[in-house]
## 1
Amino acid sequence: MDGPLPVEPQQLNPRAGIGLRPPHYREIIDTHPDVGWLEVHSENFFGRGGHPLYFLERVRELYPLSLHGVGLSLGSADGVSHAHLVRLKALATRFEPMLMSDHLCWGAIGGRHLNDLLPLPYTEEALDVVCANVGLVQDFLGRQILVENVSSYLEYFDSSIPEWDFLAEVARRTGCGILLDVNNIYVSAVNHGFDALRYLDAIPASSVQEIHLAGHDSNGLCLIDTHGKRVAGPVWNLYGEALTRVGAMRTLIEWDSDVPSLATLLDEAHRADDVLEQWRTDTERSVPHALAA
Amino acid sequence: MHSLREIQAGFAAALFNPAASRDAPGIRAAGISPAVRLGFYRTNVLENYRKALSVTYPAVQKLIGAGLFGALAEDYTRRYPSRSGDVGAHGAHFAEFISRHPVARQLPYLADVARLEWCLEESFNEAEPVLLSMQRLAGVPPERCGELRFMLAPSSRLVSSRYPIDRIWEICQPDHAGDERIELHGGVDLLVRREGFAVTTERLSAAELAMLTALSSGYRFAEAFDYARSLHAAFDPADFLQRHLANGVLADFALPAETSFAEGSRIDGRFNAA
């Protein structure tokens, strides 16, 4: 990569980005569409060379980039894999991402990886483990990471802390940022019968640095976080509620199964851009009232 | 109250063994039984692995069909636990698994096709080779050429089979047109290498394979050549050099004197450090 890399132009006017998946690598570079930023799964670029890394270099010359991990297993009693961190740091050094993130979940135990985002029991012990792991990752990478809430399909008897308080406490103790996945809040709220607004109310606005939006499905018993369709209506509504609490916020459209055309993805991103724009307009209009009050 | 490790270990055990669902500690029912809730995760996890394996092993899937491939993927995932947070690394032992599976009795070439596909995957993601300096090579005194130790490009792989797995792989490609019947007799020795970012496969003579195998194991050029010529008396080292320098498979070299000097200085360094 030659010359300066694109960085996010503004913090005041954040835009929507899309999760870049292999079917769209070439089209993104060839067409260079108008989208605020891109996010990729870090582990897809863990090879030592070849085409994927070459493509990511070209992409990085065109857009601000976020590296989003699915494999750190921040909540595992095993701790975090050193080999995984080494690869992650090499990527960070090479691509200078604006954000790096992973999930509030676990995915490995006893050396066996399950390669999924599995729910944690929200206990004091788990809180200590997550905070120690997040702290270790941030120390190793020499930078802040964001931690994202996941969808869940079960809860544990032992949980003694609401998920929203648990996440807020991780951010408070470790200084990590929060990646607020509004779809995941909605899915879990429906599955477990809690109030999604209560979740949003508990999240410290100053810690939130990114929002995720995605589609979900129902298997008849539970909502499942499939990332396989457009963002659902109630999730758009909840997104609006999130913006009133955390302010205009960079927002990502994720789509991982039945990946659609790039045009469809961009269309979803532009819808999020429209919501962000509308939110700014409404806020500006309300400023005089606020001042009058 | 269970420890975090107990909860996670119980969850993982139940995930791969539905009969152990009852042992998974502390999952609330809340209208849906814990076993059913674990089943949601089991579905996701197995589907995730099946998809990842089908991306790496499309020819294997084509040969046995999606149904059997799915069953094999599930069985493999239970027997060969993933050891990395990178799901792409999970398929490393799929060929070994297939070779021990009953399906290998009906399709004795299947494991070798899987080995070839894993080599293609590895080659695709390997580091770019260091460009060999022809000038430096030309500077080696002719009488010392036999002492050269060549290194193969990181993206090169050698695969041998008693079956024509390159042809089998070809007819499994989505763009393959024409005859899908092939003669199963005749083994092959294959070189997998990358040209730019494209991975290619080509056949090697037995002598070439011997030469490349010996060189990749660290033998000197003269030793490798003796070995190759024992298999094929007319083997021409000049042809070999020309071909595999041109295609970039011989990616670097060292003269033993340089090597022993380097080893010497390492030992000195150790003494100094002590």
Note: The CA atoms of residues 5 and 61 of chain A lie 6 Å apart.
## 2
Amino acid sequence: MILSLALCVLPAASTAGEPPRLVGEFGGRAVSGSDILVLDLAPPAIRLVDRRTLTVRTTPLSGGGGRLDPYGIAAHRDGTVSALADRGRTLVRLSAATGERLESRRLPEPGQGVTSFWDRLGLIAIRLRAGEPLLLEQAGERFRPFSTILSRSGATPAAHLIGNLLRCGSGTEGALPCWFLAGPPDVALVHRDGSVTRIRVPTFAPAVARKAAGWDPGAAFVYPVRDAFLEPGGLWVLSNQEGDRTPLEEGAVRARHVAHVREGRTLQVIALDREGRAILDAGPGRLVMLYADRSIGAVSVR
Amino acid sequence: MNLSRIASPRTLVPALALAAGLVSAAPAHGASCIQGYAQCLVDASDLATWWQRTAAGIDCYLDTVACLKGAYG
């Protein structure tokens, strides 16, 4: 389904006349209290974005060690954040206040993402087989399966690899949105008890891939969702692929719309004036967007 | 899950066959992570010992996950 015709698409109104706020390489975000914590990988830093004014405070990361991965972050109540490093092999704990790398430990198995399952750390696993749990929760020194989201099968090793890329966005006290990068336009709301509710979301990508598996296995998929942010007023979804061309193809258009979905209905669709990278915050009256050009801006919504 | 499976002789051979097909058929503009994966496996297969090939094969896989997440995420 290509949604766009039936809905009124509202143009985005970015806040004008403000200094640029830049994030070099987006590594993940967490919203807590009055700040949005953004992990920036280039140069490595924690950027605290004031949710009201959007002013940015930067704390460079220190402590050496391997390069952090852009695989998300898990914020903890003690003021530390966890991220992955070394291509998902290592779990790193950082001080949000000082940027110091406090701890690094090798994971029993590599991860493709890290997130917060409320008071616990969540790991998105890398799977070589179908039917295995993709989400794990930390339980002491170990990780155990969490939720019913399982790895999918692929016709070839490459298709299996692409078909099991999973991300999780920002959630509420009740649920966390997660989605497969490749596949139908669904977002899975993972609840605290591990149950999952699948939400159909608007997409600007075709229902099926333009090409069958040809030279590029990635072209056999579509990539509808780039980011998701759940707040009490509903689910905000940043589109990814728009049109026929997948993100790796020349001339590809991506992430130009944000849709607001609640109780199975699409309430509004916001057209962005440039490519979006992530939804940093969502609340009454506005979104805070990180754009692909590395800038941060507010977008008015109704 | 045992990531070393991907570099075992049983799976490396089909992977290399896949790799050969991908490398020869890919258009020049394709910034494809899968092409990189294919070439990485080809390079890994040239290493001297099974342990080296296994370790390199795992590296290839994790690098490809990183590349794909960067490209499509």
Note: Chain A touches chain B at residues 69-71, 87-89, 109-110, 112-113, 125-129, 132, 156-158, 161-162, 165, 167, 181-182, 214-218, 223, 226, 240, 246-248, 250 (CB under 8 Å).
